[in-house]
Amino acid sequence: ETGVTQTPRHLVMGMTNKKSLKCEQHLGHNAMYWYKQSAKKPLELMFVYSLEERVENNSVPSRFSPECPNSSHLFLHLHTLQPEDSALYLCASSQDIVAVPYEQYFGPGTRLTVT
Amino acid sequence: QKEVEQNSGPLSVPEGAIASLNCTYSDRGSQSFFWYRQYSGKSPELIMSIYSNGDKEDGRFTAQLNKASQYVSLLIRDSQPSDSATYLCAVNLSGQNFVFGPGTRLSVLP
Question: Residue B3 and which of A51, B32, B36, B88 are 20 to 30 A apart at CA?
Answer without folding.
Answer: A51
